[in-house]
C-alpha cells in the first residue's frame, strides 16, 4: 500500500544527501541486533524445528547486513564507525520487548519485522532510486517468518486467554517500535533531516504512521489476533 | 594433504550405501549446533567487530545446512528425523569445550572447525562422487574464521602465560573432538559401517588420525601456539 501510494513521486532525497550513510548505518545495526536477538529468543523454542526456522531467519539478516556493509564501503564509510551512534537505541527496543514465551517470541519475529519493513519501505518511496534499491534489497522478504502464522493461529484458536495476552503484546510491540524509531531518527541531524524530507514528500508523517498502523492490524488479523 | 593422498582411489562407499543419509544427518546437526554455539560464544567478544565476524561465520553454517537438508529431502529423508540420534553427542562436544574467554572462543572457532573439516574431507575421498560433492560443499571454507589468526597471534606474542594456556586448550579441543567423533560414529550401525569402509579404503584409521593430528599442529603453529 505504502509502496503504491508513493510510486510516482519524484525522489526528494538525493543520492548525496548526508543522511544516506546514516540511514544505511541504522539498517546495518538493525540487522545485527535482530540477528543476535532472534538467536537468543529461539532458546524459548520447544522444538529443534523452531530453532532451525529461526536460524534461517537470522542467517538471512546477515546476508542483508552484507548488502548495506558494501553500500557503505562503496561510499568510503566504515560500517562499525557508522553504526556506533545507533547501538543504544536499537538495543533498547529489544530490551523493552523481551518475550517470555515462545508464542510471544514468534509474534515478535513476525510483527516486529513487519513494522520495520513497512517503515523503511515508506521512506524508500522518497529516496533516489540507487538508495531505495539498497533499502529494498535489505528488506527483501525471505519468507522465513511464515512458519509463525500457522503456529500462532492454532495456538490462539485453542486458548482465549493466550489470545488476549498476545493481542496486548502486539499492541506493545507497535508502541515500542514507534517510540524507538523516533528516538533513532533524532540521533543525528543529517538523519533527522533526511527523514523529514522523505516524510514530507510522502504527504505527512502522521499519515505515514496511520498507514503503518493499518498494516500492523492486518498482520495481527492474519495471526488470528483480532 | 588428505585430499591429495586419496584423490586416485576408486570410491568404496556407493551412492546407495544406507549410511549416506546418516552421514548427511551428522553434517546437518553439526551445522545447527555450531550455529547456536558460535552465537552464544560470541557474547564473549569485547567488540562489535568480533560479534559481526562471528555472525557471518554462523550465517555461513546455515547456508551449508540448507545444502544437506536438500540432499536429504532429495532422498526422501526428513532432516529432523535423521538428526535426532546425533543431537546428544554433538551437544556433548560443545558442552565439554565451553570457552571461558574470548581468546579461547576464537581458538575454538578456528581449530574446531579445522578438525571437523579435515575429518570429513578425509572421508569424502572414499565416497561416491555425488556424495563427496555434498560433503565438500558443506565444508567449503568461507574464510570467515581468518579474522582469528591475527587476533590470536598478537595476543599470544604479548603474553607468555596466555600462550601456555591456549596451547593446552588446543590440545583439549583435539582430544574432545576425536572422542566425540568416535562416539558419533558408533550411534548407528549403517554409519559405523560406512566409516569403516571409507577409512579402510583410505589406508587405515590410525594413519587417518595421524594426518589429522599433523594438520592440527600446523593450524596451532599458524596461531603462534608452538
Automatic annotation (TrEMBL), chains A, B:
Signal peptide: none annotated. Pfam families: MiaE_2 (PF13794). It comes from the Bacteria. Residues 19-196 form the Ferritin-like domain. This is Hydroxylase. It comes from Antrihabitans stalactiti.
